[in-house]
Predict the structure.
Amino acid sequence: MNIETEFGLPRGRETTYRFLYQLQAEGRINMYAAPKVLQQKFGLDRRTSHELFQDWADNWDASSFEEAKENENGD
């Protein structure tokens, strides 16, 4: 995966946000571990994964979280 084309564009950020909302909805990990999960899942470096996580956390949206929870439960 090319970070510049995937994460340099809004679409890439949307993909990451969706993944983080789903990860949070699963409730399996403490979200402070999410940057490490981003590194492993998307092959990101530490700095990029932390920046994406911080941006997601700063812009957290309750309706997006509820949508992820509904998708997780199969509703």
Observations:
- The chain is about 75% helix and 0% strand.
- The CA atoms of residues 21 and 60 lie 9 Å apart.
- The radius of gyration is 12 Å.
